[in-house]
Design brief:
mainly alpha
Length: about 350
């Protein structure tokens, strides 16, 4: 089989798998933001599979340019997908759409005018450095939120999906920058298509064996309904009592940089067991949400206390363990539906 035929076969198989994956995700998870972004990412990956060539000829045809632009914009979709996947409270904003549109527009102009003007090498480097930038943001989101994720299955599968996609994206960009225009371009094309097909096949296989509710979150934050794994046991009951004593009596949530590892050491249990306990018994998916709910309960009590009516809100928030005003205000409003100042006015009317 020639390299060209092998390349076409690999791309065709990849497109078929991606379309099947998109249909499955749309059917089962269209009601969740992360599910919809996963569908968008799968479709954008179809555009990438159809258009990605190491050392693609210039000029680019008018029908080819929109697909290349959509493929480039998929790096933004991947970043947003990771945000939604790793942050249960993530909300898609209009400016996110503008970022995607800006990247797509830049890629389109790059294809039709910059590359055609004799700057093909510069155009390839610019586009791929832009894609790499969003891949770095996505990987950063993965690392930043990994330690506070309490859902074991979601932690494992999300890390696999994001790492595999990010590694392929990085490899593709490096090949485009370093191999484009060389004699190895044809071989690199097939290698690139083979790795993409392998990554997509692995993701599709993993999706078959995972509970989608672990990966795609139906609700943004706070405790969730407990499943069969949350059945009562005497040992777990004692651990929960010990955990609640640390929260209520020692107010350990006030400590700076409190991690789940530190909390597990206090309870003298393995970290994985504490994750499972907070997730399956108390119904939290995120460790920071668990801590913030305790902090907010303390803040609510202080704001409702007439004796503390003159104490600044920021002082109360910092005493409860929040590190800055912005995250506190967002967490408080997400929990109560009102700002801290509004809550105080409702609970302690002016004399």
């Amino acid at each position: 089989m020639s390299l060209v035929a092998l390349d076409i076969a690999l791309r065709s198989a990849t497109v078929a798998l991606l379309l099947a994956l998109a249909v499955s995700l749309l059917r089962d998870f269209r009601g969740t933001l992360s599910g919809r972004l996963a569908v968008a990412f799968a479709l954008g990956s179809v555009a990438h599979a159809l258009t990605s060539h190491i050392g693609a000829p210039s000029p680019v045809s008018i029908w080819h340019a929109p697909l290349i632009a959509a493929s480039t914009g998929n790096a933004v979709v991947f970043w947003l997908f990771c945000r939604a996947l790793f942050d249960d409270g993530f909300v898609l904003r209009p400016w996110h759409g503008l970022v995607w549109l800006g990247v797509v527009a830049f890629s389109f102009v790059n294809c039709l005018w910059l590359a055609a003007a004799g700057n093909a090498r510069i155009a390839v480097i610019a586009i791929n450095l832009l894609a790499l930038g969003f891949l770095v943001l996505a990987v950063g989101q993965t690392v930043a939120s990994w330690s506070v994720d309490l859902v074991e299955g979601r932690r494992r599968l999300r890390l696999f999906i994001v790492t595999a996609a990010a590694l392929y994206g990085g490899m593709n960009a490096m090949l485009q920058i370093w191999v484009s225009g060389s004699g190895a371009a044809a071989i690199a094309d097939v290698a690139n298509a083979a790795v993409l097909a392998a990554v997509v096949a692995a993701i599709a296989c993993a999706m078959i064996h995972v509970d989608g509710a672990e990966l795609f979150t139906p609700s943004p934050a706070g405790p969730v309904a407990q499943g069969p794994a949350a059945q009562d046991s005497a040992a777990d009951h004692k651990l929960i009592e010990a955990l609640m004593r640390l929260m209520a009596d020692e107010r350990i949530y006030r400590h700076d940089n409190l991690t789940i590892g530190v909390l597990a050491a206090k309870l003298k249990i393995p970290e994985y067991k504490l994750r499972r306990l907070i997730n399956q018994r108390l119904g939290y998916r995120n460790f920071n949400v668990f801590l913030n709910n305790h902090r907010i309960e303390e803040v609510k009590a202080a704001l409702a206390d007439p004796a503390q009516a003159e104490v600044p809100v920021i002082t109360i928030a910092m005493d409860a363990g929040f590190q800055s005003l912005g995250p506190f205000n967002r967490a408080f409003k997400a929990t109560t539906g009102v700002t801290p100042s509004e809550y105080r006015r409702l609970k302690v009317p002016a004399a």
